[in-house]
Amino acid sequence: MVDPRLLKMLKDAALTALVAAALGIFIVGFRTVDVGSRAGLSFQYEFVDLAVALVIIFFGRLGLQMAAMGLRWPAIALGIVMIAAGASPMQLPSGFLHWFVALGGVLLVIRAVWPWADQAIHAAARTPTGRIVNTIGTQWLGWVLLGIAIVMPFTPFADQKTMDLGVLILTYVMLGWGLNIVVGLAGLLDLGYVAFYAVGAYAYALLSTQHGLGFWAVLPLAGMFSASFGILLGFPVLRLRGDYLAIVTLGFGEIIRLVLLNWVDFTNGPAGIGTIPGPTLFGAVFAETAPEGKQTVSEMLGIPFHGIHRLIFLYYIILLLALITNLFTQRMRRLPVGRAWEALREDETACKALGINPTNTKLTAFAVGAMFAGFAGSFFAAKQRFISPESFTFIESAIILAIVVLGGMGSQIGVVLAAVLLIGLPEWFRELGNYRMLAFGLAMVLIMVFRPRGLIGHREPSIRLHPVGSGGSG
Amino acid sequence: MAYFTQQLINAITLGAIYGLIAIGYTMVYGIIGMINFAHGEVFMIGAFISLIGFMICSMLGIGSAPVAIVLVLLISMAFSSVYGWAIERTAYRPLRGSFRLAPLISAIGVSIALQNYVQLVQGARPKPGGQIVSGGFNLFSLDGFDVRISWLQIIIVLVTVVLMGGFTWLIAKTSLGRRQRACEQDMKMAALLGVDVDRTISLTFVLGAALAAVAGMLFLMYYGLIDFFIGFLAGIKAFTAAVLGGIGSLPGAMLGGLLIGLIEVFWAGYFSSEYKDVAAFSILVLVLIFRPTGLLGKPEIEKV
């Protein structure tokens, strides 16, 4: 007699595969391709790939069901078989399917082991050593990461590529921290954050190329411009409810991008702005030969010229800017306005009753967040030396939001980890390149479903009236 | 005058397409109060399935345009509904009862994932749809300017009107419609009275997706060119239409769609076509600021 549970699981897995078949049959099964000379499209059939993918989905779902019913060992065994199938030299129709089955296996094993791992971690956290590790993890992790970030350029790893990546990650860390003020602390979902980044970038690009202002002079101006934009845009819309606000900010973000794209006289339109000067160190430029009346950094310091000096300099600028963002946020959280942000996130009606002006409070969060985006934007323009509206699309806002969400809204250290994970990993694994954004989207969904608080959830209020567990409402 | 009439005809055609997508937004918002950000992608997928469907039809030698259109319409509606259902089941249902913004963030994730999924499996280049219905007739001529209506425009408006009629009947008269309205008013109470809430919500997504698929097919036939990114702009414009008409209201969605079509076409026709998207976004912002309940919407009571 067959176990009725097994029958039920098989039925469920078959149904899942059937739904997947319905999803894939047209979109995946028939690949439309242009054929060189002939007009129109023709098909390239991908049914074998689809069929293999469906088999994988069937077994993956079966394994998940087993894990959910507590049949851990069969689930783990199935997961290992899947990983082995992915890693084996067996000829699957495409490289993607190898990844698909192997990743599916990894997820399955994680899912099956999860309850044990969870228990083990909880048990370990209660032992004395566990407590010490925990303290180090929660209190010293930030300092450790900061130490690594500071000495990074002097380590042997610091070649052109790593430094580039470091600058990129830190830019996103800064943007993440800036957006965290708006989304994580004040609870306002801003889908147009990249607009303020664009304002900062164009502020520096235009002021430097047309009026000859330097990076350090423009930096505060760019922050002010972006903050004013934040206030200007925020003032009429911040009364709106959460999801409406999200859509309006998205609309604003797109409007700013479209204006940058179409106002050719002012912004040079889609062609963008080039030859933006880089930042200077006490007036000295980073170049092999200095322009008239200036000196190069290598002359000033008396060291031989090397291209990487510029990158190291940029790295420290963005590190400094990011740290300022962080410090500012940490300080703000302890001020009345920071407390009001968090209170507003938790319950707007209660805040109103207590005499907090929601619009003004939200506006400060919006403006402060915008200001940091403005700083980051002018840094971006100075680093790239070329900007165009292409760099400020909605997807950029979504990436920054994904970093904040994955990190755990309101958590500063979570943003760092998420930025390393989301920006760093795809750069290291180049072959994942095309699948990067797909994984991005799926990750956002999975985090919302399984870990809505992110890697490091920090929805705990910064201050409590009563310590947890000693009465009070908690 | 002739130019105006011509623009009006074009605007109504475009408005019909936006209206069909807007219904999906408005229904979902009405029932579970979330912005289904991925709805635009379902429209895009509907357009792709239609494209593939038309190609299969021509391969099978189905020469008659009406037969092909009806067949493709049914296929596209059926298979896009599966997308609607699957999205709700995997990305939204587990989030019921999570914090306020969770479903919206999840929906953005779905949207990004679907766009890139279609880009990966179908390629990034725009796909020409070919001409399925061509021709038309001159309505009248004035000052040497012919006002034309193409057969395609007539088909688009006709399909939309029929579907709208059927849909209004569905909501007003059938038991599914009653269940939907019950869930919209009070989900807990509806559940107590024996309405299967999960099933009703699923069906709402299925219906919305089916209508979006129709819009996708009409879009493909009208513009003849689609790519994986069409869902983003069309989705936002349709959402604007839903908000403008009053989110949660079905006639509002249709009215909003028409208005957005009018604004976009007339803006492009009389001012500048570069800023037509800016016009649509500005309308969205202005409506949300000054009249968040829209034209036909009911004022919302904030529940604590």
Automatic annotation (TrEMBL), chain A:
- Per the record, the major location class is membrane
A Pfam entry, by short name: BPD_transp_2
Tell me the domain of life. Answer: Bacteria
| CDD domains, A to Z | TM_PBP1_LivM_like
Question: What residue ranges are annotated as transmembrane?
Answer: 12-33, 45-64, 71-90, 96-114, 135-155, 167-186, 191-207, 213-237, 244-264, 311-329, 363-382, 394-425, 437-456
Keywords carried by this UniProt record:
Cell membrane, Membrane, Transmembrane, Transmembrane helix
Q: Name one GO molecular function term.
A: branched-chain amino acid transmembrane transporter activity
The record's subcellular locations are:
Cell membrane
Q: Topology relative to the membrane, per the entry?
A: Multi-pass membrane protein
Q: Which GO terms describe its cellular component?
A: plasma membrane
Q: Which NCBIfam families match?
A: PRK11301.1 (NF008450)
Extract the PANTHER family matched here.
HIGH-AFFINITY BRANCHED-CHAIN AMINO ACID TRANSPORT SYSTEM PERMEASE, HIGH-AFFINITY BRANCHED-CHAIN AMINO ACID TRANSPORT SYSTEM PERMEASE PROTEIN LIVM
Full protein name: Branched-chain amino acid ABC transporter permease
Which species? Reyranella soli
Lineage of the organism: Bacteria, Pseudomonadati, Pseudomonadota, Alphaproteobacteria, Hyphomicrobiales
